[in-house]
Amino acid sequence: MDEDSTTPDDMDGALVLRSHDTIEQCYELKEWERRFGTNTMPKLRKDYKSLIEIVRSVGIESGEIPSFMFSSPNMPSWERRVSNAESFCEHGDFALQHFVPADESNSRRAYAQEPRAWISDNSSSFQNPVSSGVNKIRTLNNTELKDFLQVKPFGPDATDDVPVHTRRVYISNPNGASILALIRTVPAPQADGFRKLLAGYFTTPPVPSLMLIDSDWWPPASFIIAFNLPFFAISTMERQDHRKCGADKNLRASYSLEFLHLEESSSGEESWDNTTRSDTLVLQGGVFSLMVTGQSDEYWTAVCLNDDFFEEDQHVLDDETLDVDPIIQIPSLSPRNSWSPRAYALLALEQQLEKIIEYHEDVHHHLKISLDRYVSIVQQDAITNNSPKRIQEWRRSFPEVLSSVMNSSSSLALQLHDFILEDLRVGQDEAFHGILWQGLQGDISALRSLRKIKGLHSRLRTTGVHFEHLKIAYETAKHGEESRREAVRNEDVQRGETDTETNNAQPGKEQNKDNTVLRIAIAAFSAFQHSPSCDYEATRTLTSDSSFTLQHHYYHRGYGSDNLLYTPIPEYPGADIVHNPQDIFRVYLADTIQKLVNCDRLVAYDAIQTSNITGMGDLVIVAPKLRLKDVKADELAKDLLQKVYFSPNTLSRLLLSYISDRSTSYGYDTSLGLVDPSIPDGPKKKLLVEFSSPNMASEFQVSHLRSTLIGTYIANIHSNMGWNVVKMNYLGDWGKQIGLLAAGWQRFGSEDEFAKQPLRHLLEVNHKIQDLFKPELEECKATKANKQDVTEIESRGLYAERDIFFKKMEDREPEAIAVWQRFRDATVKDYTESYAQLGVTFDEYSGESQVTAESIAEVEQALKDKGIYDEHDDSLMIDFSKHDARGLSLAVLRYRNGTTSYLLRDLAAVFDRYKKHQFDKMIYVVAMEQEMHFHRVTKTLELMGRQDLAERIQHVSFAKINGLPEDLKGAELLSDYLGGCRSMVQTSLDEEEEETFHVDKSEKSVEQLGLAGLFIQDHYHKRNTSYAVDPKKSLSLEGETGAAIQNCYARLLKKLESGPGSFDYATLDHTSLETEDYAELLRILLQYPDAAHGSFRTLEPSFIVVYLLRIVDQLTATLDDDDEKDWAGLDAASEARYALYENARQVFENALRLLGVSPWSP
């Protein structure tokens, strides 16, 4: 789905740009516009005199850094920052003045060679003579950076007014020379912002901060946006940060991670994946500091100091020309446009937060692996492969490293929370209400960044919870080990003592404490009123810190899952025991906790979270969420309980029949699709989901492919949740591009070729006519750039042929419609066949051509009645800036020749679809490049008074696929992608070792593996994350790939071939499923409803892929163990494990089909 080729070039897909052609339009007066809007006074040449020059001119002779930083209060913390900066820049002046040879033996080399800088100047009439162009700035070394910064943003013949000017500076791993280069050239009005940048960067240890303030330190008044974001990341010894801010003081903290590497006792197992060997790794601290300061939306500077030593692919490399702004990872802009400084800063914040979360998740991954190994070694008493010194080093270093990362993550999350609530002041309307932020309500890029920042804040808090879980798991292991050692010592003492007084001794303080907690717990559980026909168990495991684990279950002997629920179940809003078996355990535990600590029932329920971390139990009680007064959360966590395990015996009795009863519906709540959930047989909500939507006679682009994959998942999950789903493919089959295709057909069309391969031939024709049209198009663009009239150009040649034919189409002239219909029919037929190979079907092939004249007239009349339609250059358009939507700019609805625009046709299509389908929700699955378009659609509907329709529309966006393997690079049609996938699978299978095969090499198998690789690799990534298609990451039979997932499913099928076809769950030997591997598999199966609901809430298929990978890992381990056992004479146990595997297969299948993947079959 694409814009007409001739629509205004004002829809940047990454961020909304502000054009200088519309910058002077009137907006509601708000504080930002009053102080820093576009109507502020132009900047003068004297405003660009550096602060250091001014300081020297008045005779102040102190050092450069103290002189620059002098204005802040005389406080010890400030003085330490100044001292750090001075020490850091000690050798900087030498590096700026002298060439330093790249000789490793040269002690001064490090001061000159390390930093790399990127600069972009955007000016309305000035280009920095030092640069090689605005959009392609070569990376700079120290001296080049100094030379660039010294150039003023005006020429020698300029008037006193400085032209519109913005500058963006990115310095990777700055050293003293680069900092001095900055300080010496900072204009006085911007000095206060630079001081905050340096103060944040040189604070040790670093402290997170986020702010937007105004500063009157130096007239004219300026704004300062400053973000200081500390983090930790995994690095290597070779990429360690060795910078100093004193003779013996490192600028950044770092920790060797050699201690994480612990050897397993079994020599037959690989102790540590070579890719994660920790004996060469370090935990490296870093800081991302960004400052944006200026006097208006047109005059501002952004400077970013970023630590990225540890990155394999750093943002800025030597001798590199960048088209991408490394601060926001977005292509550089033309000098005719500028970012809103606030939107720019928010996007930079969004991008860096996502990276920090990924860094911290990676740290968590390494720590968790090591902790799991440590626990395993200690529990098995298998320290033989590790020296006592190594174990002691682990015990000393692990909590220190964990604490450092936890503190960093939690501090950042807290600062971000305060920034969102107190600075941005985001309200329930999802809009900005902060004094200096509220003018951004109409800026689409800022609103999009805001939504993502809020989501990232949630992710950051979740990461913090994971670290907290890791801490609890560590402390549990530590106390368990101490208890075992104490038990051994006591046993030795008791064995050697004969004094009878020992036996009569009073219990110690800790023992009394344990008994007290035990009595409280038993009292709480005894409050349950359970049926006499039910058995009840409560088990307690004590540790030395008085924490304990509670396991309880209710079951009826010999009956199925429904009879397990005879005990009256506490009722909690939000608990769904019918569709989510985990909620059965939640409500019982919540009731227990409520009675134990006497808190509100709903508070108790909300304090219970699920855990998917080994050793952390099945449910975790988050003590602070209980909101108990005068009770410290950490003490409560110790005195109450830390983790809850489900009894494996109870779990198998409950879960296996539960899954079997629900079969393909397990995991899903169909009541979510009901208009009235209280009426189970009542009408369903209707979803209209539009996806894929390729253009007629154009390439099937990777964006269309990703739309197809994501749209299939969205349709599937809504259908499984009870919605009535209509899948629509909205073809780009109307518009001026069809008129150009018709002109090409007259010149290059061949009936013979069209009969053989209609769609491919139309594509060839389109390529030829586009090449022929290109000179006219370039001429028109050049004329527009010179602000000259293009009417004469567009009235001749292919422009005229195209427009005349399209006008005939709009007038429904039979000859033109017949040509168009022939092209459309061939397109639909070809795509229908290709989609069938992909396993995708559509309920409706619609298109722009289907939009009715009546709905177009209805839209235009409503716009006229509301006074929204404007006439400009003989075209009819909407000026969104007049309607509190600044970022949406101007949008054409009808061109000067009377033809309709893409926006007008889409608005009319909304009306047509609602009249036909009466949908409750309509989702467009379209690339994020068209986000502005859909904001225009919804905003226009609101302006027309159709808020009811605007609220039903949702744009589900996604990022680009950045790279394709050779087999797919030449793909032009969907069938080409599918053929390429088959070819890559065949190559991959030929390279695999036969012993890894559970699938076969048949044509059907190759097809299944290829499609699974395509779907899984896409859904593995979050929608708004770009990725490159990598055959090794999608088609290998090992690892986190679609092919590996199918291979595991095939192995499971083969295992089930030798088992019974049906099961009596009432007579199964459930006790045989209590071993660790079976219990863990049961726990994972229990969690599928949570995974499905999380995916449904966010429309992120990655939830399901992560869940599938957990199933695969556990099934592989369990099947491996099974294959090594002798099952002779164990018929009852064998039947129970087959029942477990059959239910695992069912959940496995449910998850695959939800993603659009057909499970492997022979």
Describe this protein's structure.
It holds the Pfam family tRNA-synt_1d. Keywords: Aminoacyl-tRNA synthetase, ATP-binding, Ligase, Nucleotide-binding, Protein biosynthesis. It comes from Fusarium phyllophilum. It contains 38 helices and 28 strands. The chain is an alpha/beta fold and 1162 residues long. The protein folds into 4 domains: 415 residues, no CATH class; 136 residues, Gyrase A, domain 2 (2-Layer Sandwich); 201 residues, HUPs (Rossmann fold, 3-Layer(aba) Sandwich); 188 residues, Isoleucyl-tRNA Synthetase, Domain 1 (Orthogonal Bundle), CATH 1.10.730.10. The strands form 9 sheets. Strands 2, 4, 5, 6, 7, 8 and 9 form a 7-stranded mixed beta sheet that branches. A 5-stranded parallel beta sheet has the order 21-20-19-25-26. A 3-stranded mixed beta sheet has the order 14-15-18. The longest helix is centred in the middle third of the chain and has 53 residues. The radius of gyration is 33 Å and the shape is globular. It starts with 17 loop residues before the first strand and ends in a 7-residue tail after the last helix.
Structural features:
1162 residues, alpha/beta, Gyrase A, domain 2, Rossmann fold, 4 domains, 7-stranded mixed β-sheet, 5-stranded parallel β-sheet, 38 helices, 28 strands, globular, disordered N terminus, ATP-binding, arginine-tRNA ligase activity, protein biosynthesis, nucleotide-binding, ligase
